[in-house]
Amino acid sequence: MSAQPVHNQDPADPCDPEAILSLLPKREHPFFLSRYREHVQAAATDLAKYKDLQRFLQTWSIRARALRQALAANPNYYEEVAADREGIQNGTVPTVPIEEALAQVTGMSLDAATAYWQSKVERARQNRA
């Protein structure tokens, strides 16, 4: 019997941590690795957390690909995001409440969109607990 790695070593697997790191800019590596280690440790001490680790890797795989595309399309992506964040915080960039955006995009009433969003927020809170 030989020891086998816990995660899939297939280099074509987009959820492989090495594949994610290969797509992420270097400045993102420390944060990703820190969070990855937290999830691995949690899964190692509580097998029920393994699905959380898988979800984390799936999410970061999507983030890495999206970030690579964003940076390819706009090399100033980070600077523009920082400027937008600052503008949102100081009120100089207009925003739309998520409930209004949902209502507009989905055709829901504002009340239905608000109820939908509140249910999503509550479910997320329960999942974090």
What does this structure look like?
The longest helix has 24 residues. Helix content is 70%, strand content 0%. The protein folds into 2 domains: 87 residues, no CATH class; 34 residues. The protein has 129 residues and is mainly α. Helix 1 runs parallel beside helix 3 and helix 5 packs across helix 6. The mean pLDDT is 92. The termini are far apart. It is globular and about 45 Å long. The chain contains 6 helices and no strands. InterPro entries: DUF6247 (IPR046214). It holds the Pfam family DUF6247.
List keywords for this structure.
single chain, 129 residues, mainly alpha, 2 domains, globular, DUF6247
Number of helices: 6
Work out the count of structural domains: 2
> How are helices and strands ordered from N to C?
HHHHHH
Let me know the largest β-sheet: none
* Residues in helix, %: 55-70%
* N-to-C span: 39 Å
Structural class label? mainly alpha
* Average pLDDT for all residues: 92
Radius of gyration: 19 Å
Overall shape: it is globular
Fraction of residues in β-strands: under 5%
Number of strands: 0
Pfam families: DUF6247 (PF19760)
InterPro entries: DUF6247 (IPR046214)
